[in-house]
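Q: Predict the bound structure with coenzyme A.
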Amino acid sequence: MEYKVDPEFEKEIESYCALPIKFDHFVDMPELSDGVVSLSCTLTKMTTPGIPGLPKVPGYYFNISTCNDGVCIGDINLRTGYNEELYYSGNTGYRIYEPYRGHGYAVRACRLLKPILKAHNMEKILITNAHDNHASVRVCEKLGAKFLRTVRVPQWHVLFRENGRDFQNIFEWSMDEVALP
Ligand SMILES: CC(C)(COP(=O)(O)OP(=O)(O)OC[C@H]1O[C@@H](n2cnc3c(N)ncnc32)[C@H](O)[C@@H]1OP(=O)(O)O)[C@@H](O)C(=O)NCCC(=O)NCCS
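A: Predicted complex:
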């Protein structure tokens, strides 16, 4: 399929980079649990971007555990900020270890980030995935995130340089989005 450049694309990046955010400090961690999974914060640090000259953004890193037995089943991070690098790599990255996939845990983990997003006045974030990552696309759909477009990853981006990633799906997840059951 031929890739066409959408004229709205640059405007979209500009408006994403201009989104409001409040950051005075890393928030005191609220309890992040929905009774099925819980998040425990393992690290906070300034992180990304790979673009020289762009400021780093505050990042939160969590383990995801099941509440019934406390087993660590994956991890999730949140990058609080909006810049051109994050447009492509998204504000969050998540992973569920293979034996625990298929139980909707990633969707639950994403939803548990909401209090932190709210604390930083972030009304929406981007979640992005490789264009052929069907499982991650399903996570976005179940969250009620809106598909914006599939973009070609620029050559300066770490996703291209380090992982050879060519096309990336961009989803927008608004805090007021109605999630699917
Ligand atoms: C993407 C990922 C986090 C989804 O986690 P999850 O908790 O298994 O998500 P869900 O249970 O909602 O399943 C999502 C889809 O994964 C697929 N899936 C289901 N069971 C699966 C299994 N045992 N193994 C692999 N994929 C499975 C299905 O397509 C499912 O969609 P469906 O609910 O419509 O059937 C997980 O597959 C993963 O860690 N992948 C590797 C890392 C990654 O790609 N991270 C995303 C980067 S943006």
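A: Strands lie at 37-47, 57-66, 72-79, 92-96, 124-130, 146-152, 167-174.
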